[in-house]
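Box 3.1 A note on notation
Throughout this textbook, protein chains are presented in two layers. The first layer is the amino acid sequence; the second is a token string describing backbone geometry. Keep the layers aligned when reading.
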Amino acid sequence: MASEEQRPAATSAGRAPVTAVQSAGGVQIGRAHGDCSAGGIDPGTSPRGVLVETRQSWRQLTRADRVLVVVVLAVALFGLAWRWVWAPPATLVRVEIGGVLVGEYPLGPTRLLRLEGPIGVHVVELGPGGARVVAAPCAQQLCRLQGWVRRPGEAIVCVPNRLIVSVTGASDAAVPDAVTR
């Protein structure tokens, strides 16, 4: 039984190295590394190559798979549209430290809150559009770098100082979730 050994051959100027496959019958030259076709398109780096691979993958799907992909994308797009267009506006900022509610503050005129946590003092700015951390005692400053939170459901969390600043809609007590007769 003949053994096969692959070794890289010399490269020519500006081209990828060519793999030479040596077998008992002699030397056979293989294709250049990175070449996927005669045109030399590498699907991992070329937009055209990625498009070709996507089309080939799409052709391999059954009709039911295609319908499922389209439905999932439509639901995802509807969810994003709901969140960005029709979601109720933010009206309150809820601040917690160590799982204890510090307060709920309405969004309105700009003000600064100094909040004492286990490792130091946070400074949180509340404005008409949302809230952000201005100064933080933690080492990585991820809470400060997150920037403004403006939409209901968004939150800033500082794990070392156990701080949670979340933006909510109207107070839950004001809006009933069900009415019975």
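The chain has three domains: 16-57, 61-88, 92-168. The beta strands are 5-8, 18-23, 26-32, 92-97, 100-106, 111-116, 121-126, 131-135, 155-158, 163-168.
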